[in-house]
Amino acid sequence: MHIMEGFLPPGWAVFWWIVALPFFILGLRSLTRITKANPELKLLLALAGAFTFVLSALKMPSVSGSCAHPTGTGLGAVLFGPLAMSVLGSLVLLFQALLLAHGGLTTLGANAFSMAIAGPFAAYWIYHLMMRLSGKQKIAIFLAAALADLLTYVITSIQLALAFPAPAGGFVASFVKFAGIFAVTQVPLAISEGLLTVLVWNWLQSYTPQELELLKLIKREPQTNESI
């Protein structure tokens, strides 16, 4: 999904930077509130960022100018909300562009909007919708991670189609082409990411229950005192 350096026309590169920046600024404010209110969550924040970095670095070639990979943003969006992930995801993309030549600086706005903004917002809304409808947390986690991954690639397909409309059929034909090629690799990757995110969630429940309780994502069973 990382659109490579210099691939987008300058006008579209600037446009996506302008669209992404307000979310980044609001995300900084969100992170500041979270860390001030609960400094003990900093380690969990770092884990969410590392999870995104590792998964999104597992790239494979896809359509021209881009690549396919898991995104890893669903977990952080459920834990801390989409605005916080707009910062963590953007920083991941920046480091990957600088250290791994994965993505680019001119295309950072476009990549941030698809992976660090659209994906996390989708994950957050899907998680809370599924919790209201079913109350089954692990299913909600799976769908949040998997569908956020898929939406990231839908947005990337839209970005590429807007920048490079097909000579015959324009935007729609170009979008169908890009999305169809992405789907070959991304559907199984999204399912795998959903399953992996559930496994990580199970680990967090076992080893960081206090932090999840602070985030109001789990409730401890009340302890009963038995009289002798």
TrEMBL record:
Gene3D superfamilies given in the database record: 1.10.1760.20
Subcellular location per the Swiss-Prot or TrEMBL entry: Cell membrane
Keyword entries, A-Z: Cell membrane, Cobalamin biosynthesis, Cobalt, Cobalt transport, Ion transport, Membrane, Transmembrane, Transmembrane helix, Transport
Metabolic or biological pathway: Cofactor biosynthesis; adenosylcobalamin biosynthesis
Transmembrane regions: 12-31, 43-60, 80-101, 108-127, 139-166, 178-204
Leader sequence segment: none
Pfam families associated with the record: CbiM
HAMAP family, A to Z: CbiM (MF_01462)
Assembly and interaction partners: Forms an energy-coupling factor (ECF) transporter complex composed of an ATP-binding protein (A component, CbiO), a transmembrane protein (T component, CbiQ) and 2 possible substrate-capture proteins (S components, CbiM and CbiN) of unknown stoichimetry.
Function, as annotated: Part of the energy-coupling factor (ECF) transporter complex CbiMNOQ involved in cobalt import.
Similarity-based family: Belongs to the CbiM family.
Name of the molecule in the record: Cobalt transport protein CbiM
Organism this protein belongs to: Brasilonema bromeliae SPC951
Name of the coding gene: cbiM
